[in-house]
Specification:
Layout: H1 36-45, H2 49-57, H3 63-66, H4 69-74, H5 80-83, H6 91-100, H7 118-122, H8 132-137, E1 166-170, E2 173-177, H9 199-203, H10 206-215, E3 221-225, H11 234-245, E4 252-255
Parallel strand pairs: 2-3, 3-4
Antiparallel strand pairs: 1-2
Length: about 270
């Protein structure tokens, strides 16, 4: 029995298909036909902050060298005299950097390591003291203020560290801190308590950490971190991975790379 609302479909042999919707008209960008548009885009790209920065401070550096992460790492800015050449410092920034001399060789009084790659510095506004990129890497005296509830070790890693360089918080997984060096030192780093030191001081603990991993057969995963472990030389990385994968019960090794954004091309 048919549903009372059902309708008969009337088929007519000569039915014509419904007309297609009109195709949208493609309007080229002004100047697209004669290459003017492409030239305008190229001109705009040449005026980006990175390009302007390179033209002003690194005119002799070609694209291949600028885009080489090893060159960026080797040419980091990490002292007060250096940073003042690139950006205008506030009185507070200048006082902190000058007293601590900024970087890895700086004063131990302030414990404010400073380092930034040329590429990442080129993204910062040289005249805006509150520029987000600038506040990410340039220290101020506000870092010396400790508020209620703040700790030097906010993740509590020291409490779960049975031997130097090893954090064993979960039964089958350890964090292996193999270097304190990074391409840049973020002002919000949760490991700023030891950032900015030399890999040599961390290597002293490598064998102790490797021995701990060998002795604890419940360990399945090893997260290699720091600092940024992939800023180590190829020989050191090969040594570490070789020793770790030689441990029978280690199934997975992860590298915590934190510096990728400081090496992007520009």
């Amino acid at each position: 029995m048919k549903h009372p609302l059902a309708q008969e479909r009337i088929v007519v042999e000569n039915d014509e298909p419904p007309p297609l919707a009109p195709q949208p008209q493609i309007v080229p960008f002004p100047g697209h036909e004669n290459g003017e548009y492409a030239e305008n885009v190229q001109n705009q790209l040449s005026q980006t902050p990175v390009k302007q920065f390179r033209k002003q401070f690194y005119p002799e550096i070609d694209n291949h060298t600028w885009n080489d992460w090893k060159w960026q790492f080797a040419n980091r800015i990490h002292t007060y005299p250096e940073i003042g050449k690139y950006i205008s410092l506030s009185a507070d920034e200048a006082a902190v950097l000058q007293e601590g001399d900024g970087g890895e060789q700086g004063s131990q009084q302030l414990h404010l390591p400073f380092s930034v790659t040329p590429y990442y510095l080129s993204l910062a506004d040289p005249d805006n003291f509150e520029d987000p990129i600038r506040r990410t890497v340039i220290p101020t005296s506000r870092e010396l203020i400790s508020s209620a509830g703040e700790q030097q070790d906010p993740l509590g890693e020291h409490d779960d560290s049975p031997v130097p360089g090893i954090v064993h918080r979960y039964p089958d997984r350890v964090l292996f801190l193999v270097t304190s060096s990074c391409a840049a030192y973020c002002r919000y780093c949760t490991r700023s308590r030891f950032a900015g030191g030399h890999t040599g001081s961390m290597r002293f603990h490598w064998e102790t950490g490797l021995e701990y991993i060998r002795e604890h057969k419940e360990i399945r995963d090893v997260i290699v971190s720091g600092g940024d472990p992939l800023t180590l030389t190829d020989d050191l990385i090969d040594y570490l991975l070789g020793r770790l994968f030689a441990v029978p019960h280690v199934e997975m090794v992860l590298a915590d790379k934190s510096s990728a954004s400081f090496f992007l091309r520009g």
